[in-house]
Specification:
- The chain is built from 8 helices and 12 strands.
- It is α/β, with parallel strands linked by helices.
- It has 2 domains: 118 residues, Response regulator (Rossmann fold); 95 residues, Arc Repressor Mutant, subunit A (Orthogonal Bundle).
- The longest helix is centred in the middle third of the chain and has 15 residues.
Length: 223
């Protein structure tokens, strides 16, 4: 998923983005409410994580303005204000969930997953399959032919993207933007290295390869 984190505390924002990326998500960051509102209006995010106390524009006003625009993107409100009245105020402003600081990252991640399922329960997939290769997005597990495959976080994210686009040619630019969150070409072989490692794990010990290189174009995962 692609998320927007609106948080003015740089340390907290870095911690949150790092955890989200390690969990396979793309996380953009805005350090104040005005910037967060502009970014939310200009891009398509799956979830917004919004701190309540923000410079330039507070979090609840940000949410109210998005809702006035007709934007129904799920919002998780983060706040040190945890009294019942505070939580009610956050939900009435248009927040979909409210988490009090300090929080456990595992709980925040579970709440994000719940918001994603609630947004569109008919289309949110928690399991992917290509041939005998299977991925469980909630349990973060991968297996092929019943054999468990251990992947590093970046490998998992790479395979998830390939599986979601099974049968399609996935270009280097697509991978840089969606898996590495780069909007420029760093001119390195980072993609080639990770694809090679992934291929050795999902194809090496199996008769039929699934991950194919499309010369001059990119990669395609198909049974």
């Amino acid at each position: 998923m692609r998320l927007l984190v609106v948080e003015d505390d740089q340390v907290a924002a870095n911690y949150l983005r790092k955890g989200l990326k390690e969990s396979g998500h793309v996380a953009d960051h805005a350090e104040d409410g005005e910037t967060g509102l502009e970014m939310a209006r200009s891009a398509d995010y799956d979830i917004l994580v919004v701190d309540r106390m923000l410079p330039r524009l507070d979090g609840l006003t940000l949410i109210e303005r998005l809702r006035a625009d007709g934007d129904r993107t799920p919002v998780l409100v983060l706040s040190a204000l945890g009294e019942v009245d505070d939580r009610i105020e956050g939900l009435k402003a248009g927040g979909d969930d409210y988490l009090t600081k300090p929080y456990a990252f595992a709980e925040l991640l579970a709440r994000i997953d719940a918001l994603a399922r609630r947004r569109d329960p008919e289309t949110v997939k928690t399991k992917l399959a290509v041939g005998d290769l299977e991925m469980d997005l909630l349990a973060r597990t991968v297996n092929r032919g019943g054999q468990s495959i251990l992947l590093q976080p970046r490998e998992f994210r790479l395979l998830e993207f390939l599986m979601k686009h099974a049968g399609q040619v996935v270009t280097r630019t697509m991978l840089l933007e969606k898996v590495w969150d780069y909007h420029f070409d760093p001119q390195t072989n980072v993609i080639d290295v990770h694809v090679s490692r992934l291929r050795s794990k999902i194809d090496k010990d199996f008769e039929k390869p699934l991950l194919h290189t499309v010369r001059g174009a990119g990669y395609r995962l198909e049974a």
